[in-house]
Design brief:
Number of helices: 14
Shape: globular
CATH architecture: Alpha/alpha barrel
Radius of gyration: 19 Å
Strand content: 5-15%
CATH class: Mainly Alpha
CATH topology: Glycosyltransferase
Structural class: alpha+beta
Strand order of the largest sheet: 5-6-7-8-9
Amino acid sequence: MSGLYLSRGLFPQEFLRPTVQFILDSQQSSGEIPWFESGYTDPWDHVEAAMGLSIGGEFDAARRAYEWLHSMQLVDGSWWASYRGDVVDNSARRETNFVAYIATGVWHHFQVTEDRDFLRAMWPMVDKAIGFVLSLQSEHGEIDWAVDGESKPEGDALMTGCSSIYKSLECAHNIAYTLGEDRPHWLHSRVILGDALRNKPERFDRTWESKARYSMDWFYPVLAGVLPEKEARARLVSRWDVFVEDQLGCRCVSDEPWVTVAESCELVMALLAAGDHARAVEVYSWLHQWRTADGSYWTGYQMVEDLLWPDEKPTWTAGAILLAADALTEHTGASKLFCEVQILGEDARERQARVD
């Protein structure tokens, strides 16, 4: 199916219910949400799928997803790169943007449910996770992308990963503020991280080839609220023809003929953040040709070979579909999470000053 045009107040509940059910059916009894049946679970994509459950009204299942992460958290506040049940699947590294994303998921669930007991129960996990992440921030503002298996920092930073952390710090602050916890250094860390993202490109991709060929490096600073709206819109316009394939979606990499559903959904939300509602609606309408009968979505489409690739229908792609639909229709209290910046306790002038 294609051509699903969404507007405010018209969340397609019946159409997207199978997508919610797909995530629910994929969830393990422990609360873990693997990529797909027999697949591994990483902390970031687990949270993305859990947010889909919250949007779908499956609040108990979403809470169990966060409780599973709580049970797997290491003493220093981090998680390994991936798991299979209670077994570590990848112990080579622990990635900072994976760890920070728990704050985004917890704040998202609270915005949907207004469940203060949930927020309080998750606070120790969020507090420890953010502590781990900020321990890897340099004096220049950027945050190391990972530590290795021996807890040694990898020594470089990613534009996409740091942009994701920037949004997570916003969410972490809002959790702390709501609960009356005092973490003023979190906002300071967010300020200097934002400065690095906007003004210090030399602090990223220092030890490897530039990641600028990846579409996420293009739109994630917009999605995460790093840029004010005028600059955000200009950034998206600047490389639109490089990454966007008409009637198909957003490429993952500029030089590969492959569009992916999850990146396209994130681009939809970035367009909304940049005030480009019309194109957000249009891009989202293209994506349902990659939907299957059970409500899941293929990872992506290879244009040259005319095939769906890889042969996977990930739970996190389903989560991204639900997040974009919520953002377009403003269905839940969390619908604007990725479309605007909200810093509780600050007035509009202070918020703008932080971006400028």
